[in-house]
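REQUEST FORM: STRUCTURE PREDICTION
Request ID: SP-0412
Submitted by: Lab K.M.
Chain count: 1
Length (residues): 174
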Amino acid sequence: MKYRNMIKRIIYIFTTLLMLISFTSCVEDEDYKSPDQIATETQAEIMDCFINKDKETLKSFFSEYVINKYSDIDSQIDEAFNFLDGEIVPYDEPNSRASGPADKKSYGASTLKIITNKGTEYEIGFKGLLTNEKEADKIGVSLIGVHNTSLKNQNEDNSDVIVKADIYIGASTE
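STATUS: Completed
RESULT:
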C-alpha cells in the first residue's frame, strides 16, 4: 500500500512537472510583427520613397482598390514629390497606430518635423487597412498625406493669403 501511494505521488509530481514545463516553454514566433511594428516599418519605407523619389515602390503600398479607383495615382505621386521644397534632410522617428478588430484592422503612421535643405518643415503620414475579411482589395495603404507645416503656420499668421499646405495621394476617406 505504501509502495502504491509512493508511485502515485511520483506520477503526480512527474505529470505536474511535465505540464509546468510545457506551459512555460512556449516558443515566441520571431517572425511575428505587431500591427504597430508593421505601421512603423511601412512609414519608414514610405519616407525612403520620398527621399529617393521612388514612385513605383510608393505605389506598391496602395491597396488594389485605391489603384483601381484613382487612375491618376501616378500623377498624384509626382505632385506629392514636387510639393516638397528641396531635399529631405533630418526627420523624426515615425509615430504609429493600429486599431479595430482582427477582421478589419486599420493602421497608420506619421513622421513629424521633416525638414528640407531649404528649411521648410513637413509632416508625412499614411492610413490604411491591415486586414479586411469582407473586402480584401482594400488591404493596404488608402491615403498618404503630405502637410507643409511651415505654410500652415504662415496661413494662420496671414489670413489674406491662403497657400495650399496639404496634398493627398489616394482616397481621402475609407
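NOTES: The helical segments are 2-24, 35-52, 55-60, 64-69, 73-83, 149-157.
Reviewed by: T.R.
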